[in-house]
Design goal:
Elements lengths: L20 H7 L26 H11 L5 H6 L8 E10 L22 E11 L2 E10 L12 E7 L7 E7 L20 E9 L4 H5 L6 E16 L4 E18 L2 E10 L12 E7 L7 E7 L21 E9 L1
Antiparallel strand pairs: 1-2, 1-12, 2-3, 3-4, 4-5, 5-6, 6-7, 7-8, 8-9, 9-10, 10-11, 11-12
Length: 329
């Protein structure tokens, strides 16, 4: 059940819940690589960071990963809701299609085209440790499939700064507010664990790949593991879905961007018709509260070889447009 995670995982496609790598990739535009090395912090006491060697910057990012800043947490005068943020969004598919012919007991499957309103909430617990959830309202309730969730949830550690590691669990399966005989509230084993590492594209490569003065490219590589997944060929659940993913975002100018993620399947037999070889998107994304985001995203079964894609997947019109409003407390 790996829909696009990094990025996504997500479902998150207006707010970067499916993989908070998007948060780094979008924010990184304001820290565009300098001639010697990229600035990875805005802290005044580190104004000389650009003089550091690349290896020192990498070590700074790696060694700061998974930090637990209890001292900072105690000293800051925060209210109960000061770590809470989120957005409200509407996702509109470009194409209306009939529901996919998947067995009724499946809790993961292809993205079906159903206009939905979402409310996403993220609570920062300590430093960059967080929990997040997205709640869905489907305008056509008759088209909601078993794998279309009432809610999704994500938790873990994610620092948007380059050279840092992330560790997250995300569940975008058919979670329900009320359980039924065939479908529990959630199947925890059908969520995906991801460990990733972020890095910027620096000189001379950024000069070759960018065409705007303030443009910047940030990337993240992830190992993704889903303990239990639905296999269409056998119409049964199997164990150990594993992928590697590499996602990059090019912040063109301001908050305008284009991004893409490529996937490698350790066992090609595990790849389902809805599991993509790559995903892509573009639009205007402002992560700050009180702003509007407009995006196009395509997470359908895109294939490097178009002849191998499943019917009704992997086309531009199989993507969707999302409009979101961000807020914080």
């Amino acid at each position: 059940m790996v829909y696009f995670i990094t990025l996504l995982i997500a479902c998150c496609l207006a707010f970067p819940f499916p993989g908070y790598a998007n948060e780094y990739l979008l924010k990184s535009k304001q820290y565009a690589p300098l001639p010697k090395s990229p600035n990875i912090t805005t802290s005044p006491q580190d104004d000389d960071v650009k003089e550091n060697t690349e290896s020192e910057l990498i070590w700074k990012g790696v060694s700061s990963s998974f930090a637990l800043p209890f001292k900072e947490w105690v000293q800051n005068d925060k209210t109960l809701f000061s770590g809470l943020s989120g957005n409200a969004a509407i996702g509109y598919p470009l194409l209306e299609t009939p529901a996919a012919n998947i067995p009724a007991n499946a809790t993961n499957g292809p993205t079906n085209n159903n206009t939905a309103a979402t409310l996403s909430l993220k609570y920062t617990l300590l430093g960059n440790w967080f929990i997040a959830s997205t709640f869905y309202y489907y305008f056509d309730k008759d088209q909601q499939q078993p794998w279309n969730p009432d809610f999704t949830y994500v938790f873990g550690y994610n620092d948007w700064r380059p050279y840092t590691f992330s560790l997250m669990y995300a569940n975008y399966g058919g979670n329900r507010f009320s359980s039924t005989e065939d479908q529990p509230v959630t199947n925890f084993d059908q969520g995906t664990w991801s460990i990733g590492w972020k890095f910027p594209v620096t000189a001379p490569f950024d000069d070759w790949l960018t065409f705007t003065d303030n443009g910047a490219i940030g990337c993240q590589i992830d190992f993704n593991y889903t303990p239990e997944y639905f296999d269409l060929a056998s119409t049964s659940y199997k164990n150990g879905h594993r992928t590697m993913s590499l996602g990059c975002k090019y912040s063109i100018i301001g908050n305008w961007y284009v991004n893409a993620t490529a996937f490698y399947y350790f066992d090609d037999n595990q790849k389902q018709p809805w599991n993509p070889d790559f995903t892509y998107g573009f639009g205007y994304f402002d992560w700050r509260p009180g702003t509007i985001t407009i995006q196009y995203n395509n997470y359908s079964g895109n294939r490097w070889n178009h002849s191998k894609r499943s019917a009704g997947t992997g086309r531009f019109k199989d993507g969707s447009i999302t409009i979101a409003y961000s807020f914080s407390f």
